[in-house]
Amino acid sequence: xxxxxxxxxxxxxxxxxxxxxxxxxxxxxxxxxxxxxxxxxxxxxxxxxxxxxxxxxxxxxxxxxxxxxxxxxxxxxxxxxxxxxxxxxxxxxxxxxxxxxxxxxxxxxxxxxxxxxxxxxxxxxxxxxxxxxxxxxxxxxxxxxxxxxxxxxxxxxxxxxxxxxxxxxxxxxxxxxxxxxxxxxxxxxxxxxxxxxxxxxxxxxxxxxxxxxxxxxxxxxxxxxxxxxxxxxxxxxxxxxxxxxxxxxxxxxxxxxxxxxxxxxxxxxxxxxxxxxxxxxxxxx
Length: 285
Known about the structure:
Elements: E1 2-9, E2 12-21, E3 26-34, H1 36-39, E4 44-50, H2 59-63, H3 67-73, E5 76-80, H4 120-135, E6 138-147, H5 150-161, E7 169-172, H6 182-191, H7 196-199, H8 204-210, E8 217-222, H9 228-232, H10 234-243, E9 249-253, H11 260-277
Parallel strand pairs: 4-5, 4-6, 7-8, 8-9
Antiparallel strand pairs: 1-2, 2-3, 3-5
Helix pairs in contact: 8-10
């Protein structure tokens, strides 16, 4: 693990690293914010943040403005890259933004040429946490997950499939029914193939309909989001949750769009949401 840079931030540090990933078979990058308490050696809770299409491990740390409240609450934040990268890692033939580099969709690809490197689900759930807990004072029993857009899809699907790992789940403008939208259909057909029964394992609307353990979920969306109807399909998710008697905290915000201007406006609300559950004595559903 190589430290690329470190920046003092609200008494803590925002750091950027790269390491050799056995899962993705390439160098992977991630960022971590360590609050003052962690720098003093205390074991702290953490939120994993998954970014959206075209992003990497830097966007959230630079744009969301999350470090101030995280420092105050004593929470670490871990933000992996959104896909494998480097020599030999395949990209979309037309270099489109919604497939390949920067568009890993937080799944484990099984189709060629993607299967060798695009193992983002296993990377986020297994390899990266092992690396984090071996090198930083973070409590593995006090972990939450959040994300934006494609990363919101990742947060919901990985959170729903791993209820023992995550105390709480949140998402900004998540892709909730990727099997039905252009972004998801393009990604799934390339990474997973044409068998749509395999897509269900990465579709949040299908997963929440089947969920037995009801991890707390919060969703924030801007009502001026240009992708609200065509790509996000949040109403499908909410209806499936309702039918499964799964209460989801849904917060719609008039006038906000899909960008980090929206994320930065409400990131404090989401961090405070997670803070309620990232305490040893907190009782989850």
